[in-house]
Amino acid sequence: MTVQLQELAAQLESIRQEAQQALAATDSLEQLEQLRVKYLGKKGPIPQVLGGMAKLDAADRPRIGALANEVKEAIQSDLDRRRTALQAAQIQAQLEAETLDITMSGVYRPQGRIHPINGMMDRVTDIFVGLGYTVAEGPEMETDYYNFEALNFLHDHPARDMQDTLYLPDGNIMRTHTSSVQIRYMETNEPPVRIVMPGRCYRRDTVDATHSAVFHQVEILAVDEGLTFTDLKGTIKVFLEQLFGEVPIRFRPSFFPFTEPSAEVDVQWKGRWLEIMGCGMVDPNVLKAVGYDPEVYTGFAAGMGVERLAMVLHQIDDIRRLYTSDLRFLQQF
Ligand code: 2U9
Prior knowledge:
Residues 2-35 form a coiled coil. It comes from Stenomitos frigidus ULC18. It catalyses: tRNA(Phe) + L-phenylalanine + ATP = L-phenylalanyl-tRNA(Phe) + AMP + diphosphate + H(+). Belongs to the class-II aminoacyl-tRNA synthetase family. Phe-tRNA synthetase alpha subunit type 1 subfamily. Its EC number is 6.1.1.20. This protein is an alpha+beta fold. It has 2 domains: 3-97; 116-330, BirA Bifunctional Protein, domain 2. 43% of the residues lie in helices and 20% in strands. It contains 11 helices and 9 strands. It has helices at 3-25, 29-40, 45-51, 61-97, 116-130, 144-147, 179-188, 229-244, 284-289, 306-314, 327-330, and strands at 134-135, 141-142, 173-174, 193-202, 214-224, 249-256, 259-269, 272-282, 298-305. A 7-stranded mixed β-sheet has the order 1-4-5-9-8-7-6, with helices on both faces. The longest helix is centred in the first third of the chain and has 37 residues, at 61-97. The chain is rod-shaped and about 145 Å long. It starts with a helix and ends with a helix. Ligand 2U9 is lined by residues 177, 179, 182-183, 217, 219, 221, 256, 258-259, 277-280, 282, 286, 301-305. Residues 177, 179, 182-183, 217, 219, 221, 256, 258-259, 277-280, 282, 286, 301-305 line the site of ligand 2U9.
């Protein structure tokens, strides 16, 4: 190989290397195109090198021509590979830049929960349903007859007083207990009766830590042949066991217009006797008022205040907390 040939071959080799490095360093298609023109264009270095072929021996000329083609092809294939890579990168970048987030941020809907009054009313009602009682409901607006008269309240009974009962302009009243529902039920149903009445009641009370003008009751009524005070005690014992567990209970004599005899029921809870409900045998006058023969049928009844039960079992210190809709309070249940 002649010195001239070696020189031209070395020049071609360094063009190839330089082009290779330049291509590897490009990061845009525009730059790549500039490099194509620079290294493979008509005014590029290879035609220049080939211009020096005149100095070569005729026998060396085809060799340098072949070498020049090899270098051109090598540069071309580097260029193609780089173009493919840059195009792929460009598409990828475009895809990432144009990503459309089609998700929508959700609408926050706070989860509600059962109010402690309703929770307690459900618990009590469910226990009696478990004992075979049926739920009965009635209107909150009542007549004097269903709320007092049929329940054996004397005409001058203090509960009938304007100071104790909410009277409506039309002469009706807001029911002061759910007992009116039992009267309505017995008027349209024959014994045997086993009913449980959960419901809202109203009294013209001055609101304080233990009184609310709106409150809730659950009452029960059983009427059948041969029911005795023992049946009443057994029913209440089973009920209180399910609500409080095995706690001592006691019955104290009391008075209600609609029951005779009547009793208050206390449970021993956290070391103290608490008055929790009232009960008694249905007064014969009440049975007569709905057309039941008191010589054939006897009945027992009991009633309790739902707020009071909730306050005892949840250790709530003021009845008003149950009515002020303070979420810090309500979220505890
Ligand atoms: C009929 C006959 C008898 C329901 C009864 C009680 C005793 C009682 C109070 C508890 C606290 C009301 O919420 S409170 O203030 N109730 O002590 N209730 S016997 O007796 C009836 C009901 C209906 C036809």
